[in-house]
Amino acid sequence: LRAHAVDMNGNKVENPIDLYIYVIDMNDNRPEFINQVYNGSVDEGSKPGTYVMTVTANDADDGTTANGMVRYRIVTQTPQSPSQNMFTINSETGDIVTVAAGLDREKVQQYIVIVQATDMEGNLNYGLSNTATAIITVTDVNDNPPEFTTSTVSEPSECWALWLHITLSPEPNGAGWQQNWEGMRFPTTTCAHSHFSFSQPKGPREKILHFAAAVDYEMNRAFMLTVMVSNQAPLASGIQMSFQSTAGVTISVTDVNEAPYFPTNHKLIRLEEGVPTGTVLTTFSAVDPDRFMQQAVRYSKLSDPANWLNINATNGQITTAAVLDRESDYIKNNVYEATFLAADNGIPPASGTGTLQIYLIDINDNAPELLPKEAQICEKPNLNVINITAADADIDPNVGPFVFELPSVPSAVRKNWTITRLNGDYAQLSLRIMYLEAGVYDVPIIVTDSGNPPLYNTSVIKVKVCPCDENGDCTTIGAVAAAGLGTGAIIAILICIIILLTMVLLFVVWMKRREKERHTKQLLIDPEDDVRDNILKYDEEGGGEEDQDYDLSQLQQPETMDHVLNKTPGVRRVDERPIGAEPQYPIRPVIPHPGDIGDFINEGLRAADNDPTAPPYDSLLVFDYEGSGSTAGSVSSLNSSSSGDQDYDYLNDWGPRFKKLADMYGGGEED
């Protein structure tokens, strides 16, 4: 600190002085290890005093005092084998070294040591402590030779592989882990391939012994050999043991059912296409390697894409089932390929496959086709030409050069067209005449190939003749005209389209106008004045009993008028027109005055009322016949009750339509 002395006015009275305060350390921090876990290693068999690793702990207290002086010690060791004190530690430096002999990786591969660091110079009563873990791995040295688990192995097998197992003590991938394997001698073998090879399926502890070639039971039935294994690295010094191990191997070969095989696979034959059905092509037979087994071999088709072949199931003879065509899609590079199966009747059955390849030699069996099928040309010559060629499914020498010519019939073909040869594959078709009307023309052309014998074909090319511009290109109108429609036809079609569109437009306008008028009429009618739903028509009265028994002759029209004229006045048929003077109706003026309309209507009404001949004729109903009575009796027996016992008040609850009845019968004594 710096101290200043001043008077009441702040004036300096003394020079400033420095005051020093020294902080005395206290033991308030534990030692801290740099790592909580330390890893180290030491070789097995190491001598006492061999360095292993160093552990370090730091103390934050003053190192010049006992508070910061750290000391180390080993607290525990796991496992305590072969001794509980296999390691020691330098108390000041933290170096861990071996203190006893007997480190053996094959017995103990790892030790876990707990190290304690204490300050106050290691005083456990006053100092503070902390611990860390030291993991010590015992590394391997080559101190054990390999050993076979058994000295002799007998293995019945197919004589192609054998498992060999050895016991290895060294650590995996260590110096003593790699071995040298070799076959030493073959006392009884008669195999031409007198050597073997080894492979490693799982690890150096196991090997598979392979024959260098397949072993055949029919050739060798047993093998005996000696196998030796040794370490690649020498044994550690001081080890009094052999560095190698040997084992005798006896191998017995057992016979198994082997599959038949085709000696020639793939088998190639050559023949011309088009051979007839049933032709014998070849015999494709298989061999059964099992000489000591009496087995039969049967043949069948496995793959025949075009179904062109048959095979004899007993002897393997192959015949054609259809005509072989080189131009078929099943042919690749002139070769047709089929696969056959040969199976024996062993236990279990075995089978082998063979492939037959048939090279088809081409014959001239396809006529050439003209190309292109369609073209266009100008209606005037010397503007453009049509280049034509031909396509032939055959191959050389049954293709080009081609011969192009026009047929003599019809004569118009050679009159209008001409062909000019360019080379063996191409020619030009052009107009012979100076002008040809626009349209589509079918031009037949005869194309002949160069096969032996040659084949020809008459192909038709559709040529569109149209007007062209100065560049020789067909114009748009000309293209349409060439399609078969003239200018007049095109104009007619356009007019029809316009008329149809106009009719559709007028119909739409009329429908909209009609809908608008309908909507306007609906608005002019008051919904309360619309009586269409308020007028009810009742025209059914029903029949009685005796009323159905009537004389239909009374309703028939009489043939003469004598009975009508002689009938008593005032009595007549309802379906007859009355006989009498007809009243005179007023004549309507040609130009009526508005004031005379009412008088005209009234006069006409009076004349109609006084006209007995005016329809309907049944206005006056006269019943001449009522029947002989009714089985129901008289209705006079239905008298009204006046006792007053009947209560009709419920009629008031039936609504306004029964109000009249309620007033008549439901009024009580007051009514």
Automatic annotation (TrEMBL):
<feature type="domain" description="Cadherin">
    <location>
        <begin position="34"/>
        <end position="148"/>
    </location>
</feature>
<dbReference type="GO" id="GO:0005509">
    <property type="term" value="F:calcium ion binding"/>
</dbReference>
<dbReference type="GO" id="GO:0000902">
    <property type="term" value="P:cell morphogenesis"/>
</dbReference>
<dbReference type="InterPro" id="IPR027397">
    <property type="entry name" value="Catenin-bd_sf"/>
</dbReference>
<dbReference type="GO" id="GO:0045296">
    <property type="term" value="F:cadherin binding"/>
</dbReference>
<dbReference type="InterPro" id="IPR015919">
    <property type="entry name" value="Cadherin-like_sf"/>
</dbReference>
<dbReference type="GO" id="GO:0044331">
    <property type="term" value="P:cell-cell adhesion mediated by cadherin"/>
</dbReference>
<feature type="domain" description="Cadherin">
    <location>
        <begin position="369"/>
        <end position="477"/>
    </location>
</feature>
<keyword id="KW-0106">Calcium</keyword>
<dbReference type="GO" id="GO:0008013">
    <property type="term" value="F:beta-catenin binding"/>
</dbReference>
<feature type="transmembrane region" description="Helical">
    <location>
        <begin position="477"/>
        <end position="510"/>
    </location>
</feature>
<dbReference type="GO" id="GO:0007043">
    <property type="term" value="P:cell-cell junction assembly"/>
</dbReference>
<dbReference type="GO" id="GO:0005912">
    <property type="term" value="C:adherens junction"/>
</dbReference>
<keyword id="KW-0325">Glycoprotein</keyword>
<dbReference type="InterPro" id="IPR000233">
    <property type="entry name" value="Cadherin_Y-type_LIR"/>
</dbReference>
<keyword id="KW-0812">Transmembrane</keyword>
<dbReference type="InterPro" id="IPR002126">
    <property type="entry name" value="Cadherin-like_dom"/>
</dbReference>
<feature type="domain" description="Cadherin">
    <location>
        <begin position="263"/>
        <end position="370"/>
    </location>
</feature>
<keyword id="KW-0165">Cleavage on pair of basic residues</keyword>
<comment type="function">
    <text>Cadherins are calcium-dependent cell adhesion proteins.</text>
</comment>
<keyword id="KW-0472">Membrane</keyword>
<keyword id="KW-0479">Metal-binding</keyword>
<feature type="domain" description="Cadherin">
    <location>
        <begin position="196"/>
        <end position="262"/>
    </location>
</feature>
<dbReference type="GO" id="GO:0016477">
    <property type="term" value="P:cell migration"/>
</dbReference>
<dbReference type="InterPro" id="IPR020894">
    <property type="entry name" value="Cadherin_CS"/>
</dbReference>
<keyword id="KW-1133">Transmembrane helix</keyword>
<dbReference type="InterPro" id="IPR039808">
    <property type="entry name" value="Cadherin"/>
</dbReference>
<dbReference type="GO" id="GO:0016342">
    <property type="term" value="C:catenin complex"/>
</dbReference>
<dbReference type="GO" id="GO:0016339">
    <property type="term" value="P:calcium-dependent cell-cell adhesion via plasma membrane cell adhesion molecules"/>
</dbReference>
<keyword id="KW-1003">Cell membrane</keyword>
<dbReference type="GO" id="GO:0007156">
    <property type="term" value="P:homophilic cell adhesion via plasma membrane adhesion molecules"/>
</dbReference>
<feature type="domain" description="Cadherin">
    <location>
        <begin position="1"/>
        <end position="33"/>
    </location>
</feature>
<dbReference type="Pfam" id="PF01049">
    <property type="entry name" value="CADH_Y-type_LIR"/>
</dbReference>
<protein>
    <recommendedName>
        <fullName>Cadherin-4</fullName>
    </recommendedName>
</protein>
<dbReference type="Pfam" id="PF00028">
    <property type="entry name" value="Cadherin"/>
</dbReference>
<keyword id="KW-0677">Repeat</keyword>
<dbReference type="GO" id="GO:0034332">
    <property type="term" value="P:adherens junction organization"/>
</dbReference>
<keyword id="KW-0130">Cell adhesion</keyword>
